[in-house]
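Q: Hi! First time doing this. I have a protein sequence and I read that you can turn it into a structure. Is that right? Here it is:
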Amino acid sequence: MKSRSSSNAKIFSPSARKTFHHALTHLWKTEFPGLFGPAVTELFATQVEQLFQKFHPLRERVGWGQLVWLAVATDDLPSYGKRIEDTRLVPVILDLVSRADLDGLLDGGTWNDLREARITRLCQQAHAQGGLLSQADLGLLLTQSNAAISKVMRSQSRSSPDAQLLPSRGSLHDLGQTVSHKRSICYKRLVEKKTTSQVANETFHSPEAVEQYVQALRRVQLCQDQGLTIPDTSQATGLSKRLIQEYVNLIAEFGLPNLNETSTPSLKKSKTANGTKQKKS
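A: Yes, that's right. Below is the predicted 3D structure, encoded as structure tokens:
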């Protein structure tokens, strides 16, 4: 029995080693001879094999109406001059068509309703798997122009000030000219009076980012309340004129009170008392 096992191993062992993993180790050895040792070669082969499996999930994992898409990793933030080739991607499984889509149409829903529902679903599903979709991604998936996708997303974000923020690349990575994230964050913090941590959880931002947007709006508001023009405000705050105009529009939309008129009575009394003392002296 032992001799038969030994004989089979001698015959079939080479066949067992005809794998993608060993093809990779052969590639490293032939294309980069002498550059990597056996341990590093094995490590590289293992890493590439795992990456391939991650980007090409088994067919059994992808169900009816689903597809695999490459999204930008949520925690890989953009920077000036950073190309998509330098950005970490994550494969996500999305429901391009779902039973809810069919039920909606059967119940008399419109194609516009379906498009809005799909955009929301795709963004949320990608974010739940650690990725973010751009407007270009959504346009390709839904065969819509970038302008059409942008129009739907802006309409959704402006349906009400406290509308749920869609976790897309534009909203979370602050790309493009969308102001939906600024609007939602500032509204929740300044109008609804929610805590920074609450706003951070509801808008998929860090507490630091929430305070950054709120303080930027407050700086613009302080300048506006003092009668500064947008160019003067830009010089005082270091913000662009376009961004300042966006904040000015939000201040007017929210109906925020003049900061100069929100001093507490005790503070006003203190100022009056100090002024009286200075006059007496």
